[in-house]
Amino acid sequence: MARYKGPKSKISRRFGEPIFGPDKVLSKKNYAPGEHGNGRRRKQSEYSLQLGEKQKAKYTYGVLERQFRNLFKSAQRSKGVTGEVLLQLLESRLDNVVYRLGLARSRAAARQLVSHRHILVDGNVVDIPSYTLRPGQIVAVRTKDKSMEVIQASLAGFNHAKYSWLAWDAPSMSGKFLNVPQREEIPENIKEQLIVELYSK
């Protein structure tokens, strides 16, 4: 499975946000990497801003270029505002939902749980991180994997009430994908209109 394996702290510093999760380096060096990162930076062009926003979305959700472009094309074909639909498609990915349910501390860890066959969808093993969930589907941990230390550690103290489109059932260690979230419910700091403008050139 293709995925980004480069330096994550460097990417987070470029955008000034912990897009891969909590990062100690970001708190110590809250400026862009490179020789001129801590100085005055020249004004970015329109294209640079648009490209940066697309890159931020890709890194945040752990999606590579071809996958991202295909998702954008799907969003264009769908009813609704293209940028919002794009984010909704990203939020509906299985790896993202596993992360939102608190079963993993990062999307990368969630992808690993899925690809290693620890996750069920409606009672069946699904090992495709990009699998798109539909409203009403149930995401759960396989019975024999519920005691996994990495899952238990991630769930400890996790607030399941912060995502209104997901319902968590603690006894069964499962979550229901109630509906596709509205844009205002998605917490990611992404200016999706800039991505639409980039692909519309």
From TrEMBL:
It comes from the Bacteria. It holds the Pfam family Ribosomal_S4. GO terms for cellular component: ribosome. Residues 92-156 form the RNA-binding S4 domain. NCBIfam families: PRK05327.1, rpsD_bact. Belongs to the universal ribosomal protein uS4 family. HAMAP family: Ribosomal_uS4_B. This is Small ribosomal subunit protein uS4. The lineage of its organism: Bacteria, Pseudomonadati, Bacteroidota, Bacteroidia, Bacteroidales. The gene is rpsD.
